[in-house]
């Protein structure tokens, strides 16, 4: 039976070199441990042993104990075989020629005491092997340093021509050469001078080093997570090579009570059906030793293959684990609520169409962009001279119009801000396009846009949507925090709805004053609110007779805000979900005013695997003491959310005093809020696998992504750990 199949007691390894198993006999995962143990034990040199005589013809010879001191620590003697061995050759197997003794110093043992000069020859080769190992380590260390740099920066390794005649041999070899030119230790083992088995810079070896870095990074994540419960955040998308990829992020609470989200990897999927995605998750879990039974939350977007009630991914996982509760991504729900307003209100839809056209026309050429910057700079200088703007470091920086994103409505808010800030410059560029005449190619479109922008209707919609998107932008940014918890997220949604409701009730006067001031500044006519409204583009016979005040206050202001509030109330209504209703009782606001013991007990019952009937009874008593402690202790009075509460409980050891309450809090923190971390992974994928690197293999991309995204963890991993992992991945000619 091989040692691959049994436990190895490192303290009971045979000391006699004649009785040892070869290093290859042991499991590859413990071979380095065996080597270290033998190095700690030192060579077997029984100096006081009575060495037996061997007959060589008419002469007799025996091993001389003085040879131990003469030839050094590599020399060993086997009492069992009456033979000499080499410790260095046994541990590291350097390539030693026959003139140096071949296998006689590792397998059979050297016994020709008549020719002790063989020991001197082997000594020279042993010293040479030590130098070889040192050079190999230096080369590997330099290669890992280069790999670290490229992984952290997301840069390409290779070049189309890496021959010695090439003027650019690729980023990796060029950086390695740079390091060699500035480091004498590395320069001694450059590519041109190193033996073949020292050249650890070939493509396959680069991939192995990258894999070793990724393996150690994911291992660090798994070690940090320990036996904690976790949630999975999943999303799928296509990369630049039109391959379907699924990214997975783990969310859990670490031993410090801090919520963390870590990217664990990507899986290529043949299709985006729920069953295909579930199989990909199972493969990923199997590779990293994760169990579906530890999952306590699922976070996806609203796609039918994800949240389908009968065959969606969430349903398939819930059949396997009933406590893996599904949370629809809050950020995605907010985006859907904004899209409904933009698409279902005809005036707002037309407004955003105008905004898109303005950005496209003004930014259609570098000439127009330069003109926009020049006009804006002139306006800034003029405002500074008049005292309308304050000067200072970081203020009044050069800027341009920001384009709207297709999937992130937070970018629309930035676009509106830039248009308000650069309104005069945009008008000037549109007038320049018109003055250029037919050669501009967009004279008609520019003229229409100029007329629309210089209207009260446009300015009113511009400021109205700026205020609405400004209120929701704070919520959007907060939801995308990695450490955001679901209790605080629900509170932020409530505040956002309250802010919009307040805006509806008492924000009209401030808005109309702001719009009127803006129009006066830019010479835009302001209609009399008591006059009848004239709807351009519609027949007057079919037009409803209403005043301008009714038009802008009722049909625009109230209608848009009511539609926005209705969508937010519909999509963020925790009363529709028992889990969210119970979680709200953990809120810290107003000295735990939302605390409700019965609902928290019900929350515990939703996790039957963690809370038995006896635990529920103990929790009922523990909650009374807990809430009294929290409300009377000054240590918890300044906390903002349950994430801070969990960390403070660990700091003050309260998690040991109230273990069941702390478990309830960590389960709440584990539930996902948004899938922003997964979407960031796809953004990183676009950086790594761009148009010029679209042939990147799946494993290479996965390993590169893990290290690139989790660079903070990777920076704490020592090179020695990476080297040991690299050595254990397969048999190497070079030895550390």
Automatic annotation (TrEMBL):
Where on the tree of life does the source sit, at the highest rank?
Eukaryota
The UniProt record lists the TTF-type domain at 59-162
Instruction: Give one Pfam family, short name only.
Output: Dimer_Tnp_hAT
User: Coiled coil: which residue ranges?
Assistant: none
A single GO molecular-function term is: protein dimerization activity
User: Which PANTHER family does its entry note?
Assistant: GENERAL TRANSCRIPTION FACTOR 2-RELATED ZINC FINGER PROTEIN, ZINC FINGER, MYM DOMAIN CONTAINING 1
Q: This chain belongs to which protein, by name?
A: TTF-type domain-containing protein
